[in-house]
Design brief:
The chain is mainly beta. 6% of the residues lie in helices and 41% in strands. The strands form two sheets. Strands 6-5-4-7-8 form a five-stranded antiparallel β-sheet, with helices on one face. It has a three-stranded antiparallel β-sheet with strand order 2-1-3.
Length: 133
Amino acid sequence: MSDYIKPLPKPSPTSLPFWEAARRHELKLQYCEACKAFIYYPRDRCPTCFSDSLEWRPVSGRGKVYSYTVVRRASSRSFADGPYVLAIVQLDEGPRMTTNIAAPPEQVRVDMPVAVYFDDVAPGHTLVKFKPA
């Protein structure tokens, strides 16, 4: 780990279990007991059926690139380490996650299989990213 200068996540009470699992290098998502679906991003109610019967369950960490862009021009000095890949990954369990792909931009393709990668960027802070599977 080097001196990390990018903004770090500030977990809310709702998202805290996601970030705690990431620190343990586990990918966990909310699961709705009522409609039997995984949910991402963390929230207090299921976006499909509005149930509050949600629990945290481990998921495979496997999926495919649904969409992506290559960021070449930084929006701020904190993100001046480009180019980097900003992507939406469709997890095998269903939800889509906005994330980074840890690969050279020219290697990334839509529908490319990916697997979760945990980036320990600072003490107590782990980011969820993906890499080619």
